Amino acid sequence: MTAELVRGQNHPLVGPDLQVHVTAERPVIAGAALCDAEGRTREGWFGHPGAAGPPGVSPAAGSRESHRITLALDEVPGEAESVRIWLTLTPGGPVRFGAIAAPRIAVLGPDGVPWAGYSLTGLDGESAVTAVELYRRAGAWKVRAVGQGYAGGLSALCADHGLPDERARSLAEGILASVAAPAGVPGPPTRAAAPGTAAAPGGASARPEPQPGARVDYRHPTRPGAGSQAGSARNEAPQAGAAPNEGPPDGAQREEAPQPVAGDASGWSMEERLYNQVWGMFEDLARTVAAYRGAVAFADERLEKEIDEVLADPRTRTGPAADAARERARARQAELIARAQQALDRDLDQLAAESGVVEPALPPAFAGWDNPVWHGYRVPRSAPSALRLGDLSLPERIGLRIPMLVRLPLERGLWIDSGRGGQPAAEVIDAEELRREAGLLATAVAGRLLAVHPPGGFTVHVIDAAGSAAHTLRPLLDSGLLREAPARGAAGVSGVLGRLTERVDLVQLAVRNRAADALPPGLDTSDQLLLVHDFPHGFDDRAITQLRYLADEGPAVGVHLLLVADREDAADFGPLLDPLWRSLLRITPIPDDHVADPWVRHQWTYEPPHVPQGSAILPRVLGTLAEAVRARPGGRHV
Question: How far apart are alpha carbons 434 and 157 in whole angstroms?
Fold first, then answer.
């Protein structure tokens, strides 16, 4: 079965020999670039149809609108961590991807069977795009949908892969010159994007590409009017060691930063635009911090090199000249770091301003529990596209928090870690208090999932084998939204798992045979959530096997898993549960820097979406939903 990817999603590959098919409505050029661990390409690693490909990659054009890239991943050099497939529009045709239908990427096995697909939707003013990335992870290869667009064109894409500006321009010009412009095929009338800009992944927003000595312009390049644009326009991070952009000279009039606007990213609805804008903010924060850290590292390396040079010469190793050389080196280091800090502060201030206008505009599914939008809660008519599972931040600006949004329906189960798990902050919290916080978080997540679905669109099952979570489950129990009381004891665990396993089997069979009308009458077709407290208490080997089956097969047919567990409590099961832990998205009831960023390798601090202490908003929201459920014809529990 082909996995249909969305931007940011990854999928395992079947083997080293693959084909990537690219199809587009209008002529494009497709190629591949090998990248090292830092995301940089090297000479000979940038392949396109007009030249021999890098090792393991054979780009070949099938037609102007269709391309095939053959991959032998076993032949890719060991120092290359990824293979990026890129597209660019040809000269003489449309000047932006937003003027044509979304290009389509298909990853096929050697037998031609498709394994993953990705449609590059959401692009606008971009004329080049990194479509997908095939990357190594733990000795295996995976594919990730990227959708990183560049309004600056192919040269901006090449520069973003670490090539010097002059080399990036010459390479891009050579590739475009090797393809004759299509004759007699004028593109639709379009307005060219502002020079020097590049768009964020998926077209979420545009990114001004900084020029030497220029200030970053946060105005949206596709909207008229200076100073009235949103702060979601993105800036590309400078290369490590590059001097940050400087402000105007003393006495010059300083241009005021434009005021941010919520929802100015691209998308087919306001919800989708806000989702894209939030992800653009996350990417901006990652990039600007990466640039700052790279600049500081460069300054430190330069200081060390200059001092080594002083010490290497016996004539300058000691004395006043040596002391003066060291002082000059330290002064240069301090100057570089100060300039990097100035650029960082400027970008973080702009992101903080953007966050200040985006956060109040978020819909309930994206909003924190302290957002006033929950006080005006209305029962939704349709399910949202994503859900907020907390916030992410970096130590460079603790107060700047980016909502952590995950797509719905959930593709992975959730694991709320009720153990200490090596968290320094957990060492000062009583173990029972930590378990209680984990239980409260589970109720908040389950309550949010119920609240953002229409009545009857979501069902929650609870397993509380030991009966220890009655207090933390109180909002769910009091609302009457649970169809059944929490299951207790081994018999209760077996009953719930048996019913859900049977449901997964029946729906899979119906989908496989295209016989949805053959499902048993009365089968609940709503999405399901199984909330398990104090796992693995009450579970035997058979129940463990059933739970693993639900975790693996359930999401595809609308059955999702939420565990509250301390991994150490499951140590008696040995490696049997290791695949389960790896398949789940781990979140914690207290802030912890466990969220790894595979893009720029940051360690993000995760902050859980707890209901504010003393707030009655969750019971109030669930009560409103319960009234809507009872008011439905034949009203019943969700």
Answer: 47
SS3 labels along 63-117: CCCEEEEEEEHHHCCCCCCEEEEEEEECCCCCCCHHHCCCCEEEEECCCCCEEEE
Beta bridge partners of 198: 207
CA distance 490 to 498: 12
**CA gap 21, 129 in Å, rounded:** 15
Residue 115 tokens read as 């394994």
**AA letter at 446:** A
Tokens standing for residue 255: 């241009």
Position 179 scores a pLDDT of 62
Residue 98, CA atoms < 13 Å, CB-side half-sphere:
23
Which pLDDT score, from 0 to 100, does residue 495 have? 96
CA 153, 355, 225, 274 torsion-angle sign: positive
Contact 60, 49 (CB under 8 A): yes
Distance (Å, whole) CA 28 – CA 46: 17
User: For residues 561 and 416, is the Cβ–Cβ distance under 8 A?
Assistant: no
Distance CA 626, CA 113 (A): 47
For 497, phi and psi rounded to 5 degrees?
-65, -40
DSSP letter at 246 equals P
pTM of the entire structure? 0.62
Q: Which residue has the tokens 């003013």?
A: 125
Distances (CA, A) of 485 to 227, 544, 617, 638: 56, 21, 23, 13
Q: Tell me which H or E stretch contains 579.
A: helix 578-583
What sign for the dihedral angle of Cα 215, 220, 223, 228?
negative
pLDDT in tens, 122-174: 888 899 999 999 998 877 888 988 988 898 899 999 998 888 888 888 888 88
Number of Cβ within 10 Å of residue 591's Cβ equals: 16
3-state DSSP call for residue 564? strand
Query: Which letter does DSSP use for residue 26 in this model?
Result: S
399/567 Cα distance (integer angstroms): 31
CA distance 611 to 339: 40
Q: How far is 581 from 529, CA to CA, in rounded Å? A: 17
Q: Which amino acid is at 568?
A: E
